[in-house]
Design brief:
- By secondary structure, the protein is of the alpha+beta class.
- It has a single domain, classed as Outer membrane efflux proteins (OEP) (Up-down Bundle), CATH 1.20.1600.
- It has ten helices and four strands, in the order H-H-H-E-E-H-H-H-H-E-E-H-H-H.
- A four-stranded antiparallel beta sheet has the order 1-2-3-4, with no helix packed on it.
- The radius of gyration is 38 Å and the shape is elongated.
Length: about 425
């Protein structure tokens, strides 16, 4: 079983040809294929049709009507009557209701476009994060595989020394146990990497991804003061802009509700044609005029609608404040995490150098008969831990840089610079 796992890991990590998939290509594939993003884009078309409908209500409405009637009365000649008519109506004044509806529909298009842009940025961030996670798992699996190979080499060396009578059997048994444990760890790391690839493929709407190459992201970042990023987030975040426009829509709803207290004035023109069977002489009839209607009392319905619209505006304003607080928290958190990750990157690289020196000394002392096996095993574990900490720090820098870019609303720029 041990040999079988070793062959499988060797095949996966060394023999499988790597697929060059830059993060920019992964993002572009997701933007093209992701069905959730395509569904969000359709909302723009819905909003555009809503604007056409709102504008249409302010224009001329033309209607046609017609009827044919027949009557029969005992002792009286049968009679038929036919009539048809065309009428047109144009709203002259609606108390601001129609104008508010048009402006609200225009804002709806802007909101839909902002929502779509925000969805794009969210998807880019999700792909970038999944990509970094996959690369981190790949790099971790390589470290675990290297540790297993090192321990296997120690096991073979101790086995040869045991066969020559130079080492005790307990040393050989311990070496075999540690090699087996390292093999299990490497297998789990490989499985985690394959799961990460599956998650990335799902975001890209791709069937599968064969493999990735270990990609180096820029780790020499110069962080500005957090206030600069907070200002950038206030200016760039599309969801905040959309929330502000929704407040404006809510204020227009207040105007529309108040129109219930005002009159409606319409201009009307029409013409009718009628004829009876006795003469079948067509009689034209034309009319034109202006009509007005005004609801004097509606049992408080309009007042309730106005108050409801005002409360909704207050709710939207509170929601915007909460969203702004959430965005600021995301910016501050990402900024702190990135700063710490940059510090960790320096210290973990130093730890790797020290651990490699420790392993070399422990191996030489053991081979010369001055050290014990535990020193070698501890040194291997320390080196593996140091390397994986360095991997974690390196990809945390990439991950938190994407976190910060997404928090300020500009993930695409970070991807372009990756």
């Amino acid at each position: 079983m041990k040999k079988f796992l070793t062959v499988i890991l060797t095949t996966l990590l060394l023999s499988t040809p790597a697929q060059a998939l830059p993060v920019q290509e992964a993002v572009q594939t997701a933007l093209t294929n992701n069905p959730n993003l395509q569904r969000t884009e359709q909302s723009i078309r819905v909003a555009e049709e809503s604007l056409k409908s709102a504008r249409g209500r302010k224009g001329v409405t033309v209607s046609a009507s017609g009827s044919i009637n027949a009557s029969k009365t005992e002792g009286v000649e049968d009679s038929q009557r036919a009539s048809t008519g065309i009428s047109a109506s144009l709203p002259l004044y609606s108390g601001g209701r129609l104008e508010a509806a048009i402006r609200s529909a225009e804002l709806g298009i802007e909101i839909s476009k902002l929502d779509f842009s925000q969805s794009q940025d969210d998807l880019i961030y999700q792909v970038a994060t999944a990509y970094v996670n996959a690369l981190e798992n790949l790099a971790t699996s390589k470290v675990d595989y290297e540790t297993e190979q090192n321990l296997s080499a120690h096991e073979r060396m101790i086995g040869a020394q045991y066969a020559a009578g130079a080492k005790a059997k307990i040393d050989l048994l311990r070496a075999q146990v540690e090699t087996s444990n390292a093999l299990q760890t490497a297998a789990r790391s490989q499985a985690a990497y394959e799961v990460a690839l599956t998650n990335l493929a799902a975001l890209m709407s791709a069937d599968s991804i064969a493999s990735l190459t270990v990609e180096d992201f820029d780790t020499h970042l110069a962080l500005d003061d957090v206030e600069i990023y907070l200002t950038e987030a206030d200016e760039n975040r599309r969801d905040l802009k959309a929330a502000a426009l929704r407040i404006e829509q809510g204020e227009l709803d207040v105007v529309s509700a108040k129109s219930g207290w005002l009159p409606n004035v319409n201009a009307n023109v029409g013409t009718d044609f009628s004829a009876a069977s006795r003469r079948w002489h067509v009689t034209p009839d034309a009319s034109a005029g202006i009509s007005a209607s005004w609801s004097i009392f509606d049992s408080g319905v309009t007042r309730a609608e106005v108050e409801s619209a005002k409360v909704e505006v207050d709710r939207l304003k509170l929601a915007l404040d909460a969203d702004l607080d959430g965005v600021h928290e995301s910016v501050i958190t990402a900024h702190k995490n990135l700063r710490i990750a940059l510090l960790r990157l320096t210290t973990t690289q130093k730890a790797v150098d020290l651990a490699e020196e420790e392993r070399y000394i422990a191996t030489e002392r053991y081979n010369s008969g001055e050290g014990i096996l535990l020193d070698i095993l501890d040194a291997e574990v320390a080196l593996s831990t140091a390397k994986k900490n360095n991997v974690s720090a390196r990809y945390d820098v990439a991950r938190y840089s994407f976190d910060l870019a997404h928090a300020v609303g500009n993930t695409l720029k970070a991807i372009s610079n990756a």
